[in-house]
């Protein structure tokens, strides 16, 4: 008969098994390691796309996966702006009206959120814009602004081909909107016509069509003149920055002062031309394959909140299949696509036991999860988050190197940046490593799509006077 296993041997076997499992999990998560060399490679590829996207040559522009769209916003606030300004913020979830009053560098704002029903969203151009103009009229009267001349910034968070600061055609509706007669039409013109019908054209003047990334940049620039770029890290990701006209061969606007313009990069599509394929993991490929837009928004899929949780879930499923997580057993709930949102990644990364318990209950594994399961779930969330932050930092570093603004502030907004407890730190640490000569501050933007739009209206109206 074989000798009875001693207690010490049992402990050793148990520990060996735990270490072996840990090593196997490490092997999986090693795929998300992003070396400084890889970050540098991303920066070089993105810089090439930036330059091609700004080129006067159609062939070169076609090679770029980023659009590099001029916003026609030529200056950031100087601090001397004064007066009353309006903003209309039309996004996926909300329709918001906002007024800001600037006096002696101080900003006071008033916000209202009128309802936006499915009936209005799916109506026709006249009904849709009359509804917006009607609520602008009510807002102006309610807040005793009727006797003023009010420049308005219009944040329109849908794909638009902009041709000047006050004109842009809707390329296509998204986010559940489908009002007829708006696609391929100038949305500023449609709003102005509705304001005429409501008798508001003498009071309200639409002076700027605004992208939410640009608004983010402007709302921080009012407080901090060192701001040189705007960054969105939320459901999606995008960035804009101030570029010299000398570096924009495709620029077709005037050559007057200020000889600069904010460029909306639309960098979420970086990598759509295949340039990032060798840096993606098999999990990225699966996420892309199973998404509603395969082979599109590749950079965004490595970073943003819409995809971060699902990427973590796909990795967890692989660990479950390998019996390295939850003893190889999970409920159908956790197997379901998109059942692990980015919010869960943030809760797990918080290191708060109660919050982690909430997540375990939500995915229905609370009863079977061991200490090592919880640790491995934390490691998965940390691995995908850290890589996302490093890739986002590579984008920011590319802008810093391109502009030569090594002491600068980047305005940032979005749920991922605001709610993920480690994301900002991960980015700051990465930026310090890859650009040690730079001093880059990431600054949270307060209400870029609303306040930022009104500030753009303030800047635009001041430039108009000059």
TrEMBL record:
One of its GO terms (cellular component) is cytosol. Pfam families: Hexokinase_1, Hexokinase_2. Residues 229-459 form the Hexokinase C-terminal domain. One of its GO terms (biological process) is intracellular glucose homeostasis. GO terms for molecular function: ATP binding; D-glucose binding; fructokinase activity; glucokinase activity. Keywords: ATP-binding, Glycolysis, Kinase, Nucleotide-binding, Transferase. Its EC number is 2.7.1.-. The keyword Disulfide bond does not apply. Residues 25-222 form the Hexokinase N-terminal domain. It catalyses: a D-hexose + ATP = a D-hexose 6-phosphate + ADP + H(+); D-glucose + ATP = D-glucose 6-phosphate + ADP + H(+); D-fructose + ATP = D-fructose 6-phosphate + ADP + H(+). Pathway: Carbohydrate metabolism; hexose metabolism; Carbohydrate degradation; glycolysis; D-glyceraldehyde 3-phosphate and glycerone phosphate from D-glucose: step 1/4. InterPro entries: ATPase_NBD, Hexokinase, Hexokinase_C, Hexokinase_N. Belongs to the hexokinase family. This is Phosphotransferase. It comes from Pocillopora damicornis (Cauliflower coral).
């Amino acid at each position: 008969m074989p000798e009875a296993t001693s207690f010490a041997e049992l402990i050793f076997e148990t520990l060996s098994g735990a270490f072996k499992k840990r090593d196997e999990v490490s092997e999986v998560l090693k795929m998300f390691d992003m070396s400084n060399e890889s970050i540098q490679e991303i920066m070089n590829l993105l810089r090439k796309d930036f330059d091609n996207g700004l080129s006067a040559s159609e062939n070169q522009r076609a090679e770029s996966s980023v659009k590099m769209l001029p916003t026609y916003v030529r200056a950031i606030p100087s601090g001397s702006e004064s007066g009353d300004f309006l903003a209309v913020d039309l996004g996926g979830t909300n329709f918001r009206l906002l007024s800001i009053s600037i006096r002696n560098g101080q900003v006071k704002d008033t916000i209202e959120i009128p309802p936006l029903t499915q009936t209005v969203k799916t109506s026709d151009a006249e009904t849709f814009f009359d509804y917006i103009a009607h609520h602008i009229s009510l807002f102006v009267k309610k807040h005793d602004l009727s006797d003023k001349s009010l420049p308005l910034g219009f944040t329109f968070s849908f794909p638009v081909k902009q041709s000047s600061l006050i004109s842009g055609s809707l390329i296509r509706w998204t986010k559940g909107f489908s009002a007829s007669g708006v696609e391929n039409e100038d949305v500023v013109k449609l709003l102005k016509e509705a304001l005429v019908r409501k008798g508001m054209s003498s009071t309200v003047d639409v002076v700027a069509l605004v992208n939410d990334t640009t608004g983010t940049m402007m709302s921080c620039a009012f407080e901090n003149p060192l701001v040189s770029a705007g960054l969105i890290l939320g459901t999606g990701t995008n960035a804009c920055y101030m570029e010299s006209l000398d570096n924009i061969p495709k620029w077709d606007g005037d050559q007057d002062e200020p000889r600069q313009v904010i460029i909306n990069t639309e960098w979420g599509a970086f990598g759509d031309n295949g340039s990032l394929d060798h840096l993606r993991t098999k999990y990225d490929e699966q996420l892309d394959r199973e998404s509603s837009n395969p082979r599109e928004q590749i950079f965004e899929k490595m970073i943003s909140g819409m995809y971060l949780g699902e990427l973590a879930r796909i990795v967890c499923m692989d660990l479950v299949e390998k019996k390295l997580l939850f003893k190889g057993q999970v409920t159908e709930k956790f197997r379901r696509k998109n059942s692990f949102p980015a919010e869960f990644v943030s809760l797990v990364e918080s290191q708060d036991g109660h919050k982690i318990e909430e997540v375990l209950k939500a995915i229905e594994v609370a009863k079977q999860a061991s200490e090592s399961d919880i640790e491995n779930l934390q490691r998965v969330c940390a691995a995908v988050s850290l890589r996302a932050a490093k890739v986002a930092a590579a984008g920011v570093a590319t802008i810093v190197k391109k502009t030569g603004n090594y002491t600068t502030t980047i305005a940032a907004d979005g749920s991922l940046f605001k709610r993920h407890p480690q994301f900002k730190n991960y980015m700051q640490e990465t930026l310090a490593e890859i650009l040690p000569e730079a001093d880059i501050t990431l600054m949270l933007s307060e209400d870029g799509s609303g306040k930022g739009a009104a500030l753009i209206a303030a800047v635009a109206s001041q430039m108009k006077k000059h």
